[in-house]
Design brief:
The chain is α+β, with helices and mostly antiparallel strands and 393 residues long. The protein has two domains: 246 residues, Acid-sensing ion channels like fold (Sandwich), CATH 2.60.470.10; 93 residues, Helix Hairpins, CATH 1.10.287. α6 crosses α7. The chain is elongated and about 120 Å long. This is Acid-sensing ion channel 4. Pfam families: ASC (PF00858). It is found in: Membrane. One of its GO terms (molecular function) is ligand-gated sodium channel activity.
Length: 393
């Protein structure tokens, strides 16, 4: 039998006059974009399907082929976009920004990415986080992106675009879903903030503090905090899958985020396919990973409103506007309907109701007991005096 605990959810709207801007991580959706990558095409000519150019899986097949041959084990960054190529111009609150504020981040699926407003520069020195005081389209981050790829790759890659991850400074891009931005388009991303806080077990499924390595016994949890600096259950489950891939296949999935240093799997191989298919249902995820991956109790999310319009420029370029639609935030808090103090009071009240036990009643009972004792001894004395009088007569 499972115990159930009654919870009260409070939702309040909080009007802030100043708001910290989120961290923004920008990537080209194509891992390979440069001339250096084109030079490696002859090593994987067997994967090209001449009857169907512009294969949507080309980037994955090409990467898998090169990694299996050990050709891109080192210096993977030279095959993707540089910061200077990807980000052509940028503004915040209508002020031009310096590219130094975009810090390199390697994404296991997209390769070279760059994060804005992380609180640090590329050289590691700390800077103040950007803040906004107005909720206007021009009072946020404005980007002009070059999403083109080298001419030698265009025959095989049909998709041109970028992906943008919007997250807070204490989480990684892996903790959120990205927003796809198309080449030749203007993408507007309006943001609203939601803060949520749940009570830890047994009141909910969350596990309390997930910022302290010593708060949970899971070695996988501790490894993620040590390697990544921050933790989410979603990222932990992905690492759990990687861990099982290492156990079963002695390799890791190249398109899944990883904190493990292992050779990538052949994603078209039987072992990889068999292991990944184990996690097609929640049942297997719960069985293998949930006990290793505690759920965090506090979250900040960014609700997004996205609109798109055509850009009157070349097809390789894209404009992106990221801004707060409103400085009003939603705060969702859960608390026990009955606290321990309330529970004790309720029990006392019920006892008082059914047994008539109250402080005054207790005093009255004590008074009655003393009166009975007094009457008993008084009668005894009267009886003793009667006997003495009888004897004298």
């Amino acid at each position: 039998m499972h115990k159930t605990y009654s919870m009260t959810t409070k939702i309040r709207v909080q009007n802030d006059y100043i708001a910290t801007f989120p961290a923004i991580t920008i990537c080209n959706i194509n891992f390979f974009t440069t001339e250096k990558a084109t030079e490696l095409l002859p090593f994987c000519s067997h994967i090209f399907n001449q009857s169907s150019p512009n294969d949507s899986d080309f980037q994955i097949k090409f990467r898998n082929c090169l990694e299996n041959q050990g050709l891109i084990k080192n210096n993977k960054s030279i095959y993707g976009d540089s910061k200077e190529k990807l980000i052509k111009s940028l503004w915040f609150n209508t002020n031009a920004l310096n590219l130094d504020e975009f810090v390199y981040f390697y994404h296991s699926e997209y390769g070279n990415c760059y994060t804005f407003n992380s609180g640090v520069l590329q050289n590691g020195s700390r800077i103040d986080l950007h803040q906004v005081i107005r909720s206007r389209r021009t009072d946020g981050l404005i980007l002009s992106l070059n999403l083109g790829i080298d001419e030698g790759l265009k025959e095989f890659t049909s998709d041109l675009g970028g992906i943008i991850f919007i997250h807070n400074q204490t989480s990684s891009p892996y903790s959120v879903s990205g927003v796809l931005v198309g080449a030749g388009l203007v993408t507007n991303i309006g943001l609203k903030r939601t803060f949520s806080k749940s009570e830890p077990k047994p009141y909910s499924k969350c596990d309390g503090n997930t910022k302290n390595p010593e708060s949970h016994e899971s070695e996988l949890y501790k490894l993620i905090l040590a390697k990544n600096g921050h933790y989410t259950q979603t990222f932990c489950i992905e690492q759990c899958i990687q861990k099982l891939l290492i156990q079963d296949c002695n390799c890791i999935g190249s398109v899944i985020p990883s904190v493990f240093d292992k050779e990538p799997c052949d994603i078209y191989g039987e072992c990889f396919d068999k292991t990944i298919n184990k996690f097609s249902t929640d049942k297997n995820i719960n069985k293998e990973c949930i006990d290793l991956c505690p759920l965090e109790c506090e979250k900040q999310t960014f609700d997004q409103t996205i609109s798109v319009q055509t850009l009157n420029e070349t097809d390789n370029f894209s404009m992106v506007y990221i801004y707060y639609e409103s400085l009003v935030s939603t705060v969702v808090e859960e608390s026990p309907t009955t606290s321990p103090a309330d529970l004790i009071s309720s029990i006392g009240g019920v006892l008082g109701l059914f047994l008539g036990m109250s402080f005054l009643s207790l005093v009255e009972i004590i008074e009655v007991v003393f009166r009975l004792i007094f009457i008993f001894f008084d009668r005894k004395k009267v009886g003793h005096r009667t006997i003495l009088v009888s004897n004298k007569i």
